[in-house]
Each structure stands twice: as C-alpha cells, then as structure tokens.
Amino acid sequence: MTFNPFDLTGPEFLKFYALCFIAIAFYRWVRRKQWLAVQGSGPRIKWLPYEVACLAGGHLRVGEVATAELLRKDVLVLAGDNDTLSLGKGSPTGLEEPELAVRAAVEAGKSSLKSVCRGFVTPPSIVSRLLKHGMVANADLGKESSPDTRFGMWPLRLLLGLGVIRLVLGISAGRPVGFLIFLCVVTLFVFFAWRGVANHLTGTGRRLLMDRMRLNSALRTTAKRRGDSLSHNDFVLAAGLFGVSAVLTGELAWMSAAFTPPPGSSSNSSGSSCSSGSSCSSGSSCGGGGCGGCGG
Amino acid sequence: MSSEALDARQARLLAALVSDAAVPPGFDAARIRAAARGLAAKRSRAVMDAWPVLANALGPRYGELFAAYGDGNVLPATGSALLDGALFCDWLIGREAFPQEATLERQCFKLRYTVSHSRVRARRGFKMLVVRHGQPRKWVFALRLPLLGEYWWQGHWWQRPE
Amino acid sequence: MSTRELASLGLGLGWRPELALMIERRDDLGFVEIIAEGFDGRRALLAPLQALRERGVQLVPHGVSLSLGGAASLDTQRLDQLARLAERCEAPLVSEHLCFTRAGGMESGHLLPLPYTREALDIVVAHIRQAQAILPVPLAVENIASLFEWPDAEMDEAQFITSALEESGALLLLDLENLYANHLNLGTDMPAFLAKLPLSRVAYVHVAGGFTDADGLYHDSHAHDVPQAVFELLRQLCERTQVNGVMIERDGRFPSDTILGAELDAVAALVKECREHEL
Predict the structure, then answer these.
(1) Mean pLDDT in residue range A91-103
(2) Three-class SS of residue B123?
(3) Does the pLDDT of residue C173 top 50, yes or no?
(4) ipTM for the complex shown
(5) Which of A52, A57, A236 is CA-nearest to residue A141?
(6) Alpha-carbon distance A154 to A152, whole Å?
(7) Are residues A264 and B152, on separate chains, in Cβ contact within 8 Å?
(8) pLDDT value at position A68?
C-alpha cells in the first residue's frame, strides 16, 4: 500500500503536516539530548568563577559580572541614569583581571555601562584553560554551530517542501490555503531559529555548564534573596552562571535597573511553582516564609 | 457543646484581630490590639515576600497602601499570600495606584495561576501573554504550554525562566 | 506512638532560600524543616532540597495553615497537599500546630491560641485523628506562643497539650522559645510546664530568638539570636530526656553564616554535653 500525502483532503493534510512537525521537533529534542549526554564534561579541574562566567555567557557575561562586582565594592559608582559609570572610593587593590580591565576602561573615559559591557573582551588568561580543555570552540569566543544543531533540519526541509508543493497545488485548484500558509510560515520561522542556535561553547563545554548550574542550585536560591551577603567568589560564580540580575537582590537591588534581566524572571512562583511563601523550585525558589513568629 | 458555638467564638476573636470589630468579653483588649498589629505586619510582609517586584515598585508607599487595603479587605479562609497580593493588585488598579513596573509580575501571575473560589491554583493548560514592559518599553511575549512549560520572548528567545 | 520508633533526626535548621547555601555547605545537619505551604508535592523537589536528600539529610514538612484547633471542619485540600509533600520528601514525620488560623470564613495568617477547655480539646483531638488517617507518616504538633489567653480556662496549657497528645496519639514538637515567650507574656511556669509534658513524645525541638518591644511584650520573631534563657531550657530538657532532634528557626534579619553557624554549634555542643553527662 503506498501513501501519497497529496491524496489527503485539506484538513487531513493539515493534521498530517502538524503531526510530522511535532514528530520532527521531538526527534530533534531527543537526539540533541542524547548527543549532549555523551559529551563528557571534561577533566575534573577546579574552574575559577570568572572562567565559569565566561563559559556561561562569553564576553558580555564576564564584563557584566566584573562591572557589578566593582559597583558592589564601590570601586565604580553608578549615576542616577543607571548607565553612567565613574571611579569610586573603593580600593583597586586585590582586583581580578576582568575587574581591572573594566576599571581601566572607565578610567580611560568609557563611561556608559552598556558600552563597557558590550565591548568587553575577556582577558586571555580566563579563556586559555577553557580553550585548552576544549570547552570553547575558539579563542575569541566566536559563535559556531555545533553538530547537534543540524538534527532534524533535513526532515524539516522536506516537510516544508511538501507544504509548499501542496500550497501551490491548492492555489491552482482554487482551494482555501490560509492555514497551510500559516503552517509553512511557522515552519520557516522554526527553521531559521534552529539554524541560528549557535554559541561559543563546544558540546563538552555545554555539558560542563549544565553540570555547574545543577551543582550550584543552592547558591542560586540564596543569591536570589541575599545577593548582597555573598563572598566575592560566590558572587562572581552566581552572577556568572545565572546572570547578574539573579544576584542583584537585597541591598544590591538598586543596581538591577542597569542590568536588564530576562523577562520571565519576576518571581511569583515561589520555587518550582509552589503556591505561596517563597519561591519554590528552580527558579523563583520559594519555600520561604516563616511560620509561627509573630514578629511585631 | 456543639462545635458551632466554639466556631462562633473563634470567629468573633478573629474578627477583632483582623478588622475593627469589638474585642469579645473576657479578653485583654490591649493584648488583642497588640496581636492585631502583629498580624497586620505579618500579612504585609508575607505579601512583600510573595510579590517582591510590586513591593519594590511601591517603595516607601507600600506600607501605607497595604494597610489601607488590608483594613477593608480580610483575607478569605482559602487564601494565601499569593492571592492576597493578587487582590491587592486589583485594589491598586481600582484606585489607579498600580505601579507600571509591576505589570510583568502581575501578568506572570496570570500566566501561571488561576483563581477560583478564592483559591489560587496552578494552571494546567495553555495560556498566552503579551505585554509591553520595561525601560525602554519592549514587547514581551510568553507562552505557557501544558507539560512543556513556559517559553518567553523579548527580542530573542528565552527558555523557561527561573 | 512514641519517639523510639522514630529514627534520630539530629541537628537541624529551618530551610529558607536565604539559608540554602549555608545549609548545603554545612555537613553536620541531620534534618531540615520546610514550610509545607511553600511547596507543591505534585512537582519535583527543589534542586537544593533534592541534593540534601541525596546526601541523606531528612526533610520534615512543617505546616502552618491546617488550623487543627479550628472548630470549622478541616480543609482537606490542605491536608492532601501536606500528605503528598510528605511522600515526595520521603519525610520521617510532619509537624503542625496546636492552634487555629481561620474562622468565620476569614484567614488570620497567624497561629492563634485555643481555649483550654474540654470542648476545644475534643475538637483538636478529632482533627488530629482525621489528619493522621490521611497522612502517611506520624504527625507532631507544636505548642505556640501567644500574647493573650482565652478566658474561662478549664485547665492550663501543659495539661491541654498533654491530654491532646495522649488522646490523639500524636507526637510533640516542643518549641522552647514559644514556652519562653509565654512565660514572659503570660506568666507560664516553665519548669512546671516541662514537668507535666510527656517528654517521651517529643519528636524534635525548636529553638529560636525574639525581641521585647517598647511595651514590654516579647515577640517570637524568629529574627533574633537564641536567648540564653532558651539555651537554659534546652539544657533542662536534655537533662530529663534523650532529645531526638533540635533545630534553630530563623526567618528574618539573617546573620552571616559564621554567626548562625556558631549558634548551631552551640546547640550541638549543649546536647552532646548533656548526653555525655548522662553516661
């Protein structure tokens, strides 16, 4: 028995198309997961906090973390417009390389926080071990597509081709093709989104990053509430792994307008979506709130 | 003795603690008032904890606004700090005092939860959110899918936020 | 049910997101207490809690909204949630309070005292039994602190608690700071209180700190250091009975990890000292 998708009626073809699309997406998801799982997370070395920051977010992340730490230590001062930086009273001794680089940029006249962070180049000493052990694809942290972004691309091309042919047939036969056009547009959109997924990490690097994020869940939970109480290393690690806005809490909340957070990060779901108290779960970790204490 | 009688007496005590009802006879009025102040402060802190962006956005006005809301609105028995905050948002909107910066937090709540019979429940199904937010204002789009979680977009794709 | 059937809990701390990092780094905690209303037993455990579980640290869900002493019928949805959470956490027990939190359709958001009468006792015992029938693990109930008392008491607080425990078979979560608060605010005789309680039913112990306000009232804020008087109560308790577990409750004004760590060390040292003394 042969199966010819062009023999299907309009609605049947749409269902067939949608099912194929879901199957391809699922296939890609499974294959990417498998591929990532077989990448080791590299040799067991103690990665430094700024190296982890570089792993998680490249130049921009390192720049932002260094800037935030300098603001925290009062080595830099932020003006009311949440963008203008100037030198502060804090002592420049004992600073790490990325922090020295940011401070030097501000001292040389670059005063916009956004431009300092966006133009930041990670010092080679931070990148060298990552490159040596194969965590990043190249020394300048350029983005490259890793092999697993290709999974499912050919099936998707074929599906799109099928959709377009059917579309042409439908138009020439004068049939309604509105929804099919919509599906084809969505497919094209997804195609480019999948193709565009590139970052500076190798498969091993991504695996290492995932492991680090998992192992530091308690750090993240505490940082989301008391970022101001963290030690230097903890602050850099938390901001490096989870983004600067994840740490700008407590006494540091005044800085948060300068570092735009990802949109869904407002809490509400204490924890992995629990219902009250503090954030639960991964994320707006909840689980807080006290009990008895009437605390006047 | 039926439990209805005790229920009534407990209700009278509770009313004196959470609203301006009279202190039932036999109780130390000064202590009841002190306890009532403690309860109001605790309720305010609980909502601040559950809705931090809102509390931050209202800044120093949070205390007086919440006290004004709390005076006229007792938390229902099925309630929680999350529900309390949601009702507080509605109250603020009614008085045109809702801070813009908390829009996203409120919309997040609507994306993730539904309120039925004065109880907050996590959503199970599909829900979409479109809102303009931030400085400078940008479009934020979020999609909540059953089983698959949340997907956010603001300029570029974000995964499930945490 | 006596505590002999319960495995030893050891040293504990109330788990709060603000303390997650400190708790992860501390390697001598036997258990942490989590506020039940902050978690959904239908979902996977929070990653930091999962990590603690994998390390062998016990998780004890602590409810604050069951309103066991409320004359209105129990909210079975909240009870089911507590039961699910207990299973999710593989908890050795759960705890709640001897109090009421809502009545007349209104929620107080606070733990309110019960009248010490036979009527109230019957209700709380019935509710505890109802809860025990649904919960998969033993239930411990906690004594609360209050600024005021009901008039027309038929017995004192210690007698009320003892009768509630004996008639329901529940365990006791003995909160020493609440006892201290009631001593300061209501004149409760602390040694007499301890003497009356069935100490073999103490599942674990809470210690915490509070403050005295301008009117001279003591508030158990859980946001201040544990006072010396509470340490003294802990010593007296340890001298009378083998304590299964002791934990510090800290909900606010979080100190540095060093200071809180030192407080935990002091608790552990005190319990150890009493044990050695016995031997």
Answers:
(1) 92
(2) coil
(3) yes
(4) 0.90
(5) A57
(6) 6
(7) yes
(8) 94
**C151 contacts B26? CB cut-off 8 A:** yes
pLDDT-derived band at C69, boundaries 50, 70, 90 = very high
Q: What is the DSSP letter of C215?
A: T
Mean pLDDT throughout B9-23?
A: 93
Q: What is the per-residue DSSP string for chain A?
A: ----GGGS-HHHHHHHHHHHHHHHHHHHHHHHHHHHHHS---S-----HHHHHHHHHHHHHHHHHHHHHHHHTTSEEE-TTS-BEEE-SS--TT--HHHHHHHHHHHTT--BHHHHHHT----HHHHHHHHHTTSBSSTT---B--GGGGTTHHHHHHHHHHHHHHHHHHHHTT---HHHHHHHHHHHHHHHHHHT--BSB-HHHHHHHHHHHHHTHHHHHHHHHHGGG--HHHHHHHHHHH-GGGT--GGGGGGGGGSPPPGGG---S-EET-SSSSBESSSS-B----SS----
Of A214, A224, A287, Cβ closest to residue C39: A287
Residue C267 to residue C246: CA distance in whole angstroms: 8
Among chain B residues, the shortest Cα distance to C42 is held by B122
- Thinking of the domain C3-278, which architecture would CATH place it in? Alpha-Beta Barrel (3.20)
CA dist., res. B101 & res. B52, Å (int): 11
Name the residue with higher pLDDT: A284 or C156: C156
From C17, C111, C217, residue closest to A288, measured CB to CB: C17
- Look up residue A11 and give its two tokens: 């609605």
pLDDT above 70 (res A283): no
Q: Exposed, middle or buried, C261 (CB in 10 Å: 0-12/13-18/19+)?
A: middle
CA distance B25 to chain C (A): 8
Q: Where are the domains of chain C?
A: 3-278
Residue type, C43: R
Q: Which residue has the higher pLDDT, B131 or A168?
A: A168
The model's pTM is 0.84
Mean per-residue pLDDT, C37-41: 90
Contact C47 A282 (CB under 8 A): yes
Does B40 contact chain C (CB < 8 Å)? no
**Residue C101 near residue B3 (C-beta atoms within 8 A):** no
User: What pLDDT is stored for residue A197 in this prediction?
Assistant: 67
pLDDT in tens, C217-276: 999 999 999 999 999 999 999 999 999 999 999 999 999 999 999 999 999 999 999 888
pLDDT at position A279 over 70: no
Contacts of A191 (CB under 8 A, 6+ apart): A153, A156, A157, A160
- Give the sign of the dihedral formed by CA A160, CA A166, CA A171, CA A176: negative
Quote the CA–CA distance of A192 and A195 in Å, as a whole number. 5
